[in-house]
Amino acid sequence: MISRRNRREFLKSCVALSAVGTAAHLSRLGMVTAHAQATGYKSLVCVFLFGGNDANNTIVPIDSRYGAYSAMRGPVALAQGSLLSAGSSGYGLHPALTNVQRLYNQNRAALVFNVGTLVRPTFKMADGRLNTNQLPRNLYSHSDQTQQWQSSDPTGGSTGWGGRINDFTRVQNTGSMPPGITVNGGNSFFLSGTIEKGLNFNNASTAGLVPFGSGFAARRAALQDVLTFDTGLQMVGPANAVLGGAVQAMETFNAALQSVPEPTGFPNTNLGRQLAQVYRIMQARGTLGMQRQIFFAGMGGFDNHEQLITNHQNLMATLDAAVGAFFTALDSTPNPPAVTLFTESEFNRTGNSNSNVGSDHAWGGHHLVFSNDIRPNTDGSRTFGTFPQQLLRGPDDAGDRGYWIPTSALDQYAATLGGWFGVSDADLGMIFPNLANFPTPRLGFL
Question: Which of 183, 369, 370, 188 lies closest to 281 in space, CA to CA?
Fold first, then answer.
């Protein structure tokens, strides 16, 4: 008989694809409602920059405002001549973002300014106080702000906004697999909805799916024996059901990907491999019966309390290469799918540097959105939102170091993405709990 300890270890190691609440996809809704009429395949791809990206050095004003930026940043300021111009917008991109510049100049990228978690519009009054005491819980905390960015609930929330979107759009898919897929090897709260819970892929290979290898049939049979072992125990039965569903999902995806070659041209980095997985899975969308999919990818290393310039250069280069390869691959695909890729991060960094030539936890930050459906702003640029005045203790600083008070809420940013994905305005109001607090529900970049 297999000991309980060995059984637990076997269950942990026998599959590389895990499902959270796999039973959710076994009882799919059969009714297509008015908000879920199919309009062709669409996919959202979230790239989460874990640790708090220094957005102050990701997008920089290169016009007359550069002097204020340079004075504020001090030793972590980027040289004006090194910045990559984003068209005639008056803004420059980090020197490593050459592919981002290319996509912006091709009208396929948007710069979205000063987004953050908010309960309601927040601003600094003449006496220096904020106009509301309804603020997100535990600002500047990695864990809390990561959860809030993934839930769009400033109190924390119990479901992710990507998962809630999937709850509304799931009936457009004819296949049995969940439409939410995490490819960074973790368990993404972002894709956990009330109904849909998503799948978590191991990112060890570009396929993302690791079968049992040689002797598959025997291993599969042994696993089935384990799954039916001591099912009378209260917790073992549900756990076995989840694992059994995960194995079934793995086999379904592996079968669908048999005729899809592994993509080439992606950098051999963690994020490069993740986006290669996303690209390959998209190519099997017809076989899998998918019209709507949401992917969650991510990279870490952004908590740069020291040596920001060097560390951020490497991070921006890694992000740029992976995103560039992803869109190059899409461009080379016959009848490419409609895809919008966007960034998230738990918070921006402080406007000034610390004593270690790094930056510390702050609040509102800038984000990048990539799509063939980017809509120009009223001035013809592809910049959206309000860029903060880069003045310490100024009107946009919640403190004394450049903690930018967000001028666009995460709810508005996410609702713009959800609207492009096909969610109605009425349903967006249900998905994003505080959207009604903001006069403009969408930011207009899609």
Answer: 183
